Structures are given as structure tokens and as C-alpha cells.
């Protein structure tokens, strides 16, 4: 899409896995600060996953931007 989409993420710790696929473009994610807005996961190679599959966040869509969020 040519439009920009802004997603505000409130402060907190999110135990999530985030994927921004190639089909999602021009997405901006803004948090309340890297010390306040945290996305965390716990996947690891001991779970028989490849390194790529342990990512807490993957963003491959064009035009992606993230600010004030810690991953």
C-alpha cells in the first residue's frame, strides 16, 4: 500500500512473536521507549528449531520502521 500505517504499542512487556510479512508495507511501530515497551520471546535451538525460527521479530515488508521498542 502507498499509505503509511502507524501502530502505537503501549508500554509493557509483550511475550509475543511478531512477523511483518512481505505483503505488509509501510508499517511504522512506535512504543513508549525502549525501556518501557518490550517484545520478548523464548524460542531457542534446544526446541529443535533452526536459528531463523527462533526470531522474536521478523520484518520483511518494504517500508517498515520501528522506534522506541526493544526486542
What is the topology?
Layout: E1 5-8, E2 12-15, E3 18-20, E4 27-30, E5 37-40, E6 57-59, E7 65-67
Short précis:
The chain has 71 residues and is mainly beta. The protein has strands spanning 5-8, 12-15, 18-20, 27-30, 37-40, 57-59, 65-67.
Mean pLDDT: 93
Radius of gyration: 13 Å
What is the general shape?
Answer: flat
Helix/strand-derived class?
Answer: mainly beta
Low-confidence stretches: none
Order of helices and strands: EEEEEEE
Strand portion: 35-45%
Oligomer: single chain
**Measured distance between first and last alpha carbons:** 26 Å
Count of DSSP-assigned helices: 0
Sheet with most strands: 3 strands, parallel
Residue share in helix: under 10%
**How would you write the strand order of the largest sheet?**
1-4-7
Q: Using DSSP, what is the number of strands?
A: 7
How many discrete structural domains? 1
